[in-house]
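ok so i was messing around last nite and threw this chain in just to see what happens. nothing serious, just curious
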Amino acid sequence: MNSSVSTNSSIHQAKLLIHIAENGHSFELECNGDTTVEAVMRHIEPASGISFNNQLVLCMDLRLEPQRSLSWYKLPSDDGELFVFNKAKLQTSSPLPPPENVDVIEVPDPTPPTLSSHEPHILDDDLDPALKALPSYERQFRYHYQRGHAIYTRTLLKYENAERLWREQKIQEKAVEVASGNLDQYYRMINQNYTEFMKRYMIQHRAHSDLLANFNNELEKLRAIKLHPALQTSTRKCLLDLVKEDSLRKVAENCSLSHRQFENKVSQFKQMFADVSHKVEELFASRDFSPFRNLYPVIKDHLQYIDEQKSIMQSLSKDVSTVKKLVDDCVSCKLSSLRPHDAVSALGPMYDVHDKNHLPQMQACDSQVSKLLNLIKDKKNEMSIFLHNYMKKIAYVTYFVKDAKLQFPVFKEAMVRQDEIFADLKLVRGIGPAYRACLAEIVRRKASMKLYMGMAGQLAEKLAGKREIEVRRREEFVKSHSLCIPRDLLSSMGLYDSPSQCDVNLPPFDTNLLNIDISDIERYAPEHLAGLSSKSEKYASLEGFGSNSSVDTNDKNDIEACELAEIAGTSKIEVENAKLKAELASAIAVICSLCPEVEYETLGDSRLDTLLRNTAEKTAEALHLKDEYAKHLQSMLKEKHTQCVSYENRIKELEQRLSDQYMQSQKLSNSKDEEISCIAIQDGKTREGADEIMMESSGKLNSQMDSSMIEPQREDIQVTNSSTAESMPEALNILPCDESPLVSGGILLELQNAFDEKSNHLSETETKLEEAVNEVTMLKRELEMSRKLLDESQLNCAHLENCLHEAREEAQIHLCAADRRASEYSALRMSAVKMHGLYERLKCCVCTSGGVTAFANSLRVLAQSLTISINETEDDATTEFRKCVRVLADKVSFLSKHREELLSKCPKLEAANEELRKEIEEKKELVKTLCTKLQHEKQANKEKISFHRFEVHELAAFILNSTGNYEAINQNCSNYYLSAESVALFTEHLPSRPNFIVGHIVHIERQTVKTLPPKEHINMADQMNLNPYGLAVGCEYFVVTIAMLPDTAIHSSLAS
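result:
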């Protein structure tokens, strides 16, 4: 069916395919995207027979709202099809759909040709019988063709109807799938909400169960932790004194009761949702289309019958043309005298083929297609019934799904209420971590204060150095220019002013902090006070370090600004220690602050395991790098130790050479001055070479050492260089001496003194070198510790910043979800309030006094007021309620009017009823009289004796014959004898046998007299049994069994 909706002509029109689910009919509607769904529903209302209010329109898995346009659902489109369902058929009391009625246009068979019906032909009066028979054959062949065409037309119409019913059946099958998809989508949304709710409930349930289970342990833990002596008072000795124990125990009892009640409610809700899920799964499992499948191949197979009829029709048409041509040729005298006889002789077999083969074959094809049509029609009726029942099941299951959906806001509000009830118990668990966090904050503030004061002193020293530089620069400037410019003029210019002193004066702060250190935290607030489980502790530690990394960024920047320099008489190690102490205390405080907020399973097991695995991998990598660096430092120390050993060997070698030279100088004291001078020069060169070697090795050593080891090496190098510098002038002063023997003794003495000094310097250098090695070892240990702490801190900061980022994203998601659910709850609450108001108004109408008329009037007024106050933003429930009230008002008004009409007709009906009662009494009397008369007639008929043909239940009379047997009195049928049992029955209580017997026939047995065997093989008794009545062989006779008459006027007379 094609139709269109009037729209703007400038907008492109497209076709929208609409299917009616209950019967499978389809419509094509020309429309565009601006057309509203309501316009489409109004347009198809007359054609579909479904009222606007009862239409349910689905497209794919979506339900179309009447107020929206088609473009909202991306319609019309090539694959967009609408399925219209009838809401009235979804009711449980709705009747089954009527059977499919196929209106096949009946094509009547043509009238057979007769002598009086056909028009006269020119050859009818011909003298030749062959020519005279040609027009008759033409009329018969034409009749065969017309009859075959009628059969073919009926068969084709039936086949087309079968195809149409099959297409409608496929549409109904697709409608079932669309409705199931809509329910499945709705159920999956509810199931997702249920899964999220149960996940949140399990988290809350575990947390609350843990709070209740560990409540006494928490109290004992708080009782065991004593306050710092400076915080103790007469009423506060431990952490438990900070709360009221009795009130907390009452709260715990209330929480336990509420926890059990809510757990029972959730268990009932779980059972209810499990039942809903089972109903949905059972519904989807019942969607079986196997009985309706594989019909299309059957339809295609029956197409051969249509083709066969077409071929027969072509044969009939050809035969008609042949006979017509023969007739025309005969009329035009084109045939010879012999040709008509041959043609007529050939037309006879053709006629027989038509009558005995072609037409019966076409009838058989028509019968097969009729069977196909009946089969498809039966399947279509089965599909309609299946669709009807399945849609009612969907409506039934949807009711339970909606009921489950309405439970979610109630349980979510109950969960919020549970959190409010357990807030005090959570507060108890948070006391310990809060106390530990406060102590850690004290330590952090003290460390920060020390760093802050140190930075202030460093700033004052830097400013003092800048001031000295500025003062010297000004003095040099005045000194250089005062020769040219008078001093008074320079003074007038203000060039004699000096920069003022910078006094950094910080007033004391944090003077009231407790005197505790980082080690005292574990003493007054042990780590177990935080009360974390293994998983929660890992997560809280990660979160704590992540938060610490973001919270203390400013502190780290301030500390790093110090560059670990010595400030205010504090060494770099002390600065680093204060920095690490502040970071550790800050991390402890943040972890303790997060402990009460950490819920169970905040991170999933898989996610937490992945995070811990990544942390373990990176920690292992950091430890590997630390080991590599430690190996590098050990190799450097080994190299330095080798160099020191080489220095010692070199020094010992030089000492030995000096000792040998001194001994030689003692032996050659009286030698020439040139020899002494040469020895002195050689000794000076030797020392100079030794000093150069040590300087080169020291320079090489300094280039390989770490930045933390530069200062001690510089001191050693300065000491070595100073000693070398002191020795060089002495050696140089020896060179220009005279060659007199008097001077040689002084020179040797000076050499001896110089040698002693060098020995002393070498001893001091060796001592300083050992001290430097020890200091390097100590610095190495401190460096390893610092690097280890730094690496761990950086790893923890990096990982926990990621955790914090993920937690923030998850919190944002939860916040958005909470806002959305809050809006949904608000909408549901407003809808509930509206529905409550409407029900109250309906209740007032129902409770109105004044009878049925007053109730009908109040209900009509309510329906009118609801119709006037219709709002477009109302939900489906309110709209349905308004419609129901309107329909109820109409029904009540109709019933009220009908009641008044019945009350007005009641007197007339009572009078008519009285007349009918009288007539019935008279009829009853007449019926009784007739029944009595009939019974008398039946009794009279029963007492009549039959003398013609005997039948069971009739009366028969038997007389005693000459042979002593009782033979029936019958006019037409003879050989009826009374059975021996009946004779014994009648003569048992009589002294002698009666002459006749009368009784009811109960059984008639037909027998035949058989041939007797030879006399020598039979006795007299057997002969009497084979022929008791003495009849001829082969004669038939009948043995009759009768019953006695209870009350009869006929009596048997005794034999005389």
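not much to say yet. The chain is about 70% helix and 5% strand.
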